[in-house]
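Comment thread on ticket #2218

A.B. wrote:
> Attaching the input chain for the structure job we discussed in standup.
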Amino acid sequence: MPVARPRANRAIARTITEQFHAFDAQNPHVYRALERMAARRLAAGATRVSLKDLFEDLRRQLPYGVAGLNNNFTALYARKLIAVRPHWASAFELRRRRAD
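C.D. wrote:
> Ran it. Output below, let me know if you need it in another format.
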């Protein structure tokens, strides 16, 4: 006779996209800062912008960092920047997404 195993009390795992949308909704200043930083770089003559570099610059600029600013969000922020400013599409390298 099989023995019933107690279930672990776990929160339902959220996808990276779900985590991103929750973080972005709670921290709209992060997107605005990334947008300003990207605009400055492009205005200064850059033809390519790295969201990972922008993340690191943002972390240095904020005195206490941003809790929850996850490197998994870089591609999603790049896609959001392009959605809002399609003329920036050539500045960001996007790869095919493998997971949500």
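A.B. wrote:
> Thanks. Noting for the ticket: The mean pLDDT is 86.
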